[in-house]
Recover the amino acids of this structure.
């Protein structure tokens, strides 16, 4: 029995996405402050500067809604979308902005467009993962955990997957008892999550959130 199956047995999961909760607020607040200091655009920038749970939920929804329109988006909108995912992911994603010359030097919008295109139309987890690895190869100061935060949103419009889950330190250490987040484990995790979501007839993103919130509360 896989680890996802074991933990999912004790969880009630439907198709409604639960909020991240107030635990996410401080790290997103810190990330917002950093983006604002660098005059970088992101969704809901017009909202009050004090981040709360409502802002986090609205930001997540805005990213999901905007994913559909990335294919024809301008470079400015692509960058705004990228920044918004980074913001939602929290302050551990700051390196791409503060190291190696900043976002202009570290991120290729062309490579991000390529990743988005594969995430939209890819037909297997291995294909999505290969595109993710290619993006990482051509992007500096971002790791596999944050890359999967992007693929989570970018695959949300792919009818085969509807949001491949994030593989971060919470999943690696608390679910799989791994010391570090390793790219080699991503496909296995994705496939296991897909299998369990099908067996439980639940939304994949809702399953991801239920597991994440459960593991975080146990930490």
């Amino acid at each position: 029995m896989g680890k996802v199956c074991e933990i999912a047995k004790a969880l009630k999961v439907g198709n409604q996405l639960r909020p991240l909760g107030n635990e996410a607020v401080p790290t997103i607040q810190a990330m917002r402050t950093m983006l604002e200091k660098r005059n970088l655009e992101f969704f809901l920038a017009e909202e009050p500067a004090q981040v709360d749970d409502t802002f986090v939920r609205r930001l997540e929804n805005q990213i999901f809604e905007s994913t559909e329109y990335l294919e024809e988006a301008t470079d400015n909108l692509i960058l705004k979308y990228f920044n918004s995912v980074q913001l939602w992911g929290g302050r551990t994603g700051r390196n791409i902005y503060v190291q190696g010359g900043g976002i202009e030097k570290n991120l290729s919008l062309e490579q991000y467009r390529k990743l988005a295109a594969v995430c939209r139309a890819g037909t297997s987890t291995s294909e999505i993962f290969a595109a993710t690895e290619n993006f990482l190869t051509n992007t500096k100061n971002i790791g596999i955990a944050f890359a999967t935060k992007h693929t989570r949103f970018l695959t949300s419009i792919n009818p085969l997957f509807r949001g491949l889950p994030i593989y971060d330190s919470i999943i690696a250490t608390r679910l799989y008892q791994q010391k570090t987040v390793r790219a080699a484990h991503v496909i296995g995790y994705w496939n296991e999550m897909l299998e369990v979501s099908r067996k439980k007839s639940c939304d994949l993103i809702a399953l991801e959130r239920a597991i994440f919130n459960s593991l975080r509360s146990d930490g």
Notes: Residues 53-67 form the longest helix (15 residues). The two ends are 23 Å apart (CA to CA). The chain has a mean pLDDT of 95. Residues 28 and 88 are 6 Å apart (CA to CA).
